[in-house]
Amino acid sequence: MDILNYNHSVLSVLIFSPLIAAGIAAFIRNEERLRWWTLIYTTAAAAYSLPLYWHFNLGTADFQFTENAAWIPALHIRYALGLDGISLLLVLLTTLVMPLCVLASWRYIQTRVKEFMICLLIMQTAMIGVFCALDLVLFFCFWEAMLIPMALLIGIWGGPRKIYAALKFFIYTMAGSVFLLVAIIALYLKVGSFSIPDMMKQGPLFSHQFQYWLFLAFFLSFAIKVPMFPFHTWLPAAHVEAPTAGSVLLASILLKMGTYGFLRFSLPMTPWATQHFTPMILALSVAAIIYGGFTALAQTDLKKLVAYSSVAHMGFATLGIFALNEAGLKGALLVMINHGVTTGALFIVVGMIYERLHTRDLSKAAGMGKMMPIFAAFAGMFALSSMAFPGTNSFIGEFLVMAGGFKVSIPMMVCVVPGVVLAAAYMLRMLQRFAYGGVHNPDHSHLQDLGLREIVTLLPLLVFVFWIGLHPAPFTRVMDASVSHLLAEVGPAKGAQVAMTARTAPADLAPALGVRQSSGALETSQPLLYATVPRLQPAQNPGAATR
Amino acid sequence: MSYLDFLRLAIPETIVVVAALAVLGVDLVVLRGVETRLRLLIGTMISCVGCLGGVAWLLAFPQTGNFMHGMLVANPLTRIVMIALLLLTIATLLLSLETRFTPHIGEFFALVLLGTVGMLFLVSTEDILMIFVSLELTSLSLYILTAFDKSSVKSSEAALKYFLFGGMAAAFTLFGLSLLYGIAHSTNLGQIAQAIAQKATHASAGAGASHLTLDPVLILAIVLTVAGFGFKLATVPFHLWAPDAYQGAPIPSAALIASGSKLAGFFILAKVMFLGFAGAEGTVAWRAFLPGWVPLLAVIAAASMVLGNLAALVQGSVRRLIAYSAIAHSGYMLIALLSHQVEAMAPLLYYVMTYGLTTLGAFGVVGVVQERAGGDRLADFAGLGRSAPLLSFCMLIFMLSLAGIPPLAGFFGKFYLFSFALSAPGSGLGLLWLVSLAIGMSAVSLYYYLQVLKQIYVVPTAASGTSVKTPVSTQTVLVLLALAVLVLGCVPGLVLIPILSALRL
């Protein structure tokens, strides 16, 4: 209809332009030109995605930038895309991280550059597609399409045990997908269409037994992706073997898909079962935080250390989600973004160490900071961010999550507190070793400090570390409407609790954190007209959703 | 209804038969002593023109008719299946353009075409006698095609196994069909169904309406017929010939067995079951088993999926791997039949057609690799990603489609089939156990497809510098097949909408 209108075509352009870019890349022979082409394309895509933020309507929980067309009419499958406050930041994170991935692999990848860049670009299509899809089959297509290039990234350009790691990654995630597929078919039989907004509307009306099984199927699939505590073993293997860009994508974007799945599917579609299973999932989250912390403390491989710290951070994210109150949910969303920024940066840092020393062993890297002051400064700030130092991004996220958690159970949060201390311990241990320890390491005298390319890679992430840390309102603002709406759907019974959260949050902090004070009461006072409230109508273009 | 009508209905088959005779005659009379390449080229051209003529006739002059009570039936659905069969045959013919396994070129193409004619007749009949005759025409052609590589011991061994098992299966089928004739005094599927339904009502009048009891003779007929067709479709426990035939037969023969004969076989099995055994279905819903042909097929399906997938895990030869995966896919396809309604044709046909395209392509790639490396071991594929990127990419698409990764056709086929089996009215979620098993097993299958891809992309070459260039014709066919798999996965409507509209008529 109006292809030229930014708001009506931006998502399709963002999803499918990487494929075109990959097609063009297939015909570029010169490796240097190939790198530049991918960099230019991904930067342009990032620039093209930025107006999403300004065009985003803060006042509504409806999906925006929607596109809707028939795809497979025989099965009522539609090509439906849209963004809300939950997915907007994740899409922006994806587009912004991509150029950095290209930069981080500039020298790291020397063989089969063309295939590598094509894999990255296909990943971009699939990742943005997952966050934008509003049709379950479309979602599942992108979800699965991501596996192949990711497994190839690990399997071709990975470390010594790459094949083992790639297969483990693939089989784990595929096992999760199987449950997702069963859940999708079951939902289709129940709802009669694959439309995600329809399902979110009808979710509260599902019988308890159906919700119970649906939740379990979703949970297994997403918990593997997150990964939550007992399902996490593929993650360290994949991270250790993956090339830098692969690790960054894995940590920054892929892990978020699990938590995104919880927010998009589990909570709205199975509200009863969510409440029913909450205690168990909270327990697993706490276990992940503690276990991840202790395991990270024992690692000598830098990548493993960061990988296990990911497990702990994602524990915070799931904890916040299943706290089921506004502070928790917003905190969880922020933790997701922060983890993408900080852990992505840490993996790039580890990659830089590896490029110089060809080892990731903590003891061999000791004392690098002496020769590389700029590097040490960057690494130090990202490490501080990872352990949630006040003033950095993670502090805000974890603070909100813990504020949400304390509303649920004080004993539980008492268990979480050691996890925070552990984070400080393992990060400081790492920092102390490679930045400041072992001054007399003669091997390091030849080390070059960061070049311009490497500084350009890390600088944007550092900006976000402090931007979110010092002024989070622009980031929390976009979540407001969607989070309140989600809470209203999950459990009207929890409304009172949400209101209490807002009231008891420190008065001076609350506005800065963007916690909307009266949202809980406001949302719950609405009549529960799930079946009749039109959700897919975008404010800008009411005609787009008519079928 | 005169014999002129018969001829009009049978024109596509006639065109293909004429092409078969032409290719035989031209090769024997004109091309004696000419260079093999030229003979191959001319043979392929004539055969393809024959098949294209059939397709063109089917597209240009759509016929509907029923000759002699179902002896020869033409309707939109059979037309679609026939077009698909002819297209699969054309792809097979083009793949054999660069083969060098036989000097008997005319005979080879004639047999391929005769096998196709058998499949065409098989598709367009509703009469058990005609079914048996065309089944035999197809089978005999395929036996000979399997043995066609006279220089290879494996080819002869495979053909012998295929023939012995096949002969026995044909005997079973004939016995089963004769029992059916004994029950119904008719060879027409519709009349057989009426007779079965009458018997069932007689029996249930005494035993209570809810409790369906089957005539022992009918049970025997069902079991024997299913056994016969189960052999054609390589389902457990009638699958033993498949790995050897797939491995030993020349590539085009194996491709035809795996694609065209499978499509025809599944279509006719569905027809026999839906039309002929209507009223003797039974049910397989969890904790509500009733005897009939559905439980029988369900057991076969489950066994095929489990055994096929597990056995494929340990194969070192890619062709055997494809064979075991074919057994597993037969299991998935049988699930479509279990809902015993005509609408099940849509997911079944979509699945079998796209599967045919995919497996044909996979065989094409294996053929090139075999030419290049001298074998079809997994290790022979090592480093293919570097030396033949386009070919490897085609194989990537075929393998991932077989594994059911979106957005390829294999994914949508499985998805449609499984959701159809679950949503079929009357069955409730009764088939959930079988569908869950199927989904779980398809996750298992991913492992061995990945083994092939791992060799292609990850494992470095074993330093043998003999690079055989991929023939242009083969490359073109493979790229087209890969494109078809991709496009049909993204836009399934291209095939589905004609099938669905044909079903509604």
What does this protein structure show overall?
The complex is a heterodimer of chains A (547) and B (505). Chain A has 547 residues and is mostly helical. Chain A folds into two domains: 2-492, no CATH class; 494-547, no CATH class. Chain A has 25 helices and two strands. In chain A, strands 1-2 form a two-stranded antiparallel ribbon. In chain A, a hairpin with a 4-residue loop joins strand 1 and strand 2 (77-83). Chain A is globular, with a radius of gyration of 22 Å. The model of chain A is unreliable at 493-547 (pLDDT under 50). The radius of gyration of chain B is 22 Å and the shape is globular. In chain B, 60% of the residues are buried. Chain B is mostly helical and 505 residues long. A two-stranded antiparallel ribbon of chain B has the order 1-2. Chain B has helices at 3-9, 11-29, 36-60, 76-95, 105-123, 128-146, 153-184, 189-207, 216-232, 241-248, 251-258, 260-276, 293-313, 318-337, 345-373, 384-387, 389-403, 409-423, 432-457, 472-490, 493-504, and strands at 65-67, 72-74. In chain B, helix 4 runs antiparallel to helix 11 (251-258), helix 14 runs antiparallel to helix 19 (432-457) and helix 18 (409-423) runs parallel beside helix 20. Chain B has 21 helices and two strands. The longest helix of chain B has 32 residues, at 153-184. Chains A and B meet through helix 6, helix 7 and helix 8 of A and helix 18, helix 19 and helix 21 of B.
